[in-house]
């Protein structure tokens, strides 16, 4: 799935987003691009679960 995270603007943000996603699915494959705010995720977690934890962490995401 692809997520758009508007306020992921740097490498530090990308690391935080990665940690948040891995808190739901430690085996998730994650590719972040802070320049575009896009995150590609291969996971068994539901989109709703990811969006929920990302929002709690201050990184609201929309499906792309």
From TrEMBL:
InterPro entries: HMA_dom, HMA_dom_sf. Transmembrane segments: none annotated. Residues 1-62 form the HMA domain. It comes from the Bacteria. PROSITE patterns: HMA_2. GO terms for molecular function: metal ion binding. SUPFAM superfamilies: HMA, heavy metal-associated domain. This is Copper chaperone. The lineage of its organism: Bacteria, Pseudomonadati, Pseudomonadota, Alphaproteobacteria, Hyphomicrobiales.
């Amino acid at each position: 799935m692809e997520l758009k995270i508007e306020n992921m603007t740097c490498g530090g943000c990308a690391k935080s987003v990665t940690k948040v996603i891995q808190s739901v699915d430690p085996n998730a494959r994650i590719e972040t691009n802070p320049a575009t705010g896009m995150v590609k995720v291969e996971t068994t977690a539901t989109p709703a679960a990811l969006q929920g934890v990302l929002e709690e962490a201050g990184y609201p995401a929309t499906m792309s």
